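Z., the sequence and structure:
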Amino acid sequence: MVNVPVVVTGMAWTTPLGDGLDDVWRLLCAGATGVVPVDSPHRVRTPLAAPVPSAPYGSATPEERQIALATRTLTAAFSDAGLAADDPRVTLVLGTSFGGQLDAEQEPERHWTREVADRLGHPGAPLCVTTACSAGADSLLVAEALIRGGHARICVAGGADVLSEAKRLGHTALGTMSPTGLRAFDAAHDGLVLGEGAGFLVLEARETARARGARVHARLDGAGSANDAAGLTVPDPTGDSVVAAVRRCAGGIEDIGVVCAHGTGTPVNDEVESATLRRLFADARRSPVVFGTKGALGHSLGATGAIEAIATVQALRHRATPPVAGLETPMPGFPLRLSDGTAPDVSGRAGLSLTLGFGGFNTCLRFSYGEVGDAGEEAAGEGPDGPGPGRTTSIGHGAVTVDDPATCSANRPSFYADPVAWLVTAAVEAALDESGRREEVLAARNAVGVVVLTGTRPLPTSRLLAAQAADGRTSPLRFAGANPGILAGLTCIRWGLRGPSLVLAAAEDSAVDAALTVADAWLRSGHTRYVIGVRHQVRADGRHTAACAVLGASAEPGADPRAFLTAPGTSVTTPA
């Protein structure tokens, strides 16, 4: 990974409190909330939700609202950075969870990211990150890797997600929503409140920004991620993977003045974050102040990581934090100071933004503000988990093709996962066997990453859920197992892999280069010893293929993983 400082030169958000960067920040700091009762034709656990006012809930289909919300916010981000939306130097990296796909029984003619690019007039093919609630943050992680790896000069990255009846029904079935309000880290916390929104940041190399005279909001020092490998919806209670994600960011924690917590208000998530922060800052000379935005903005799922990244930068810029909405009595044992809006000015020049997603996706972003020299650029060097710099090569590969992915999920554990996720695991099995190094790879499971590239078609279970939602019902098992992040999450659970994990949705072969650039970044930084790379495609004859390459860093030339993952005639086997 090249030692390239990455800076933030543009930001924009659309939230339940509006869309002006400083206007929304002032409202947050004043204790305002966008949570209101929202009518539903179905029986949902709570009427409370946080819709954006600029695109009224129910005024269009969820898919159209998703596209409009993303287009509007991206336009503002380009403008804030002083860039034209059709600038060919820019790569779009757009995140979401389900987006609007769970409320449409018919498959959309075009993927929402392509429609957004066309409405912007942008000439490139966007990358879509689909790692559940971590998607917005993971989009920034991907963008940073693309810039440091020389794959992109400028990225506009973040997330957009909309409130929908299918999501309200799904979280009702899971029992995750609070009937009374989201109270993160409060002794009486009992669940989340769904919201919606969008947030996008413009990232570029510092020298590129200087050359065009761009204003710099902050610097993205680093991004780290780790998978729980524990379950589809419940995080690992130890917090080990969240700690690992933080430690995979650049720099230490001594200069951290603020932490924007995930803060969902569900007891299990709040307990995990509390345990994580206790371990991270137990011996720190400075105790950062902790805040969150979900009590005021709701949980915007795939957008939340990007919105809270902007909130972290705003806290550093304004040297202040908004109160944790709904907090009255802090939960017992919370280790750090929780913001009540009256805390002293933020000390320290850096801040962390934490995101925890379904499927075990944990991501940490580290930002700094003010005059920044070359300190902290050790992100590009050797890390604690892996061998450091070397050539990324394939040490084993395999592929599986089937008429119906459901044939791969027979006789599987009791929890549900989309059949395509089981197809992915079948390809991973084939690649591990072919490598001849299965035991060696799996022995390093805490430092094995997973990146899955899929096409832009919705997963099969999405259509089943859309049909159920139209009747006012949904299966909690299918809702949990249908999130596109499950394509990587299931592999992590199946083999206990706790390295970074990622799912990208893009059909073009150029997306393979982006995925391999991210894998290369993980290997060269030492965040991983191995990366399992998988590409899922639906062929013209309707058959599904998953091709897998096990990647490692080697000083010697080896097999080119791109040639295997892009080859139209990839050798495949069909399971009985």
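Residues 12 and 512 are 29 Å apart (CA to CA). The chain has 17 helices and 18 strands.

Let me know what you think.
H.
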